[in-house]
Design a protein that fits this description.
Keywords: Cytoplasm, Hydrolase, Protein phosphatase. InterPro entries: LMW_PTPase, Ptyr_pPase, Ptyr_pPase_sf, Tyr_Pase_low_mol_wt_mml, Tyr_phospatase_low_mol_wt. This protein has helices at residues 19-33, 58-66, 80-85, 94-104, 136-157; strands spanning 7-13, 40-46, 88-91, 113-116. It is an alpha/beta fold. It has one domain: Rossmann fold (3-Layer(aba) Sandwich), CATH 3.40.50.2300. The protein has a four-stranded parallel β-sheet, sandwiched between helices. Helix 2 (58-66) packs across helix 5. The longest helix is centred in the last third of the chain and has 22 residues, at 136-157.
């Protein structure tokens, strides 16, 4: 992200009810714990419109609560303005990456750097798998990956 007064980050997954809200909440907590919230604007969105207006999956909320994190996020779909205002758009898998790159090509003045959140994983797990059809353990895996990646991302751009 830019080293400006207000750095911007958006986290994107297909439906915005599992992975990206977990990543958003994790990053927001890291930023708050570091007392950097005045320097960051963090949000998450979906490439699809399937879940617009819905709260995160109950298993995602439960996982976050188990780690002392709350969120009031409601799913939304990524917009053209997101590509023009966010410095970074970080996504969860190759399908998200393809969709975002395709959408960004239709946007004038796209300033967002689009990449996989897993790029920042010190354990080199590039893809954050969708836990929707899994169980609580799968959500915990997503949480742990997001925590590692978000910490590394924040260290790089703080």
């Amino acid at each position: 992200l830019k080293k400006s007064e207000n750095s911007l980050e958006s986290l994107v997954s297909i439906g915005n009810i599992c992975r990206s809200p977990i990543a958003e909440a994790v990053f927001r907590k890291l930023v708050t714990d570091e007392k950097l919230e005045h320097k960051w604007r963090t949000d998450s969105a979906a490439v699809s419109d399937w879940n617009v207006g819905r709260f995160p999956d109950s298993r995602a909320l439960s996982c976050l609560r188990n780690h002392g994190i709350e969120t009031a996020h409601k799913a939304r779909q990524i917009t053209k303005e997101d590509f023009q205002t966010f410095d970074h758009i970080l996504c969860m898998d190759e399908s998200n990456l393809r969709d975002l790159n395709r959408k960004s090509n239709q946007v004038k003045d796209c300033k967002a750097k689009i990449e996989l959140l897993g790029t920042y994983d010190p354990q080199k797990q590039l893809i954050i798998e969708d836990p929707y059809y899994g169980n609580e353990k799968d959500f915990e895996t997503v949480y742990e990956q997001c925590l590692r990646c978000c910490k590394a991302f924040l260290e790089k751009y703080h």
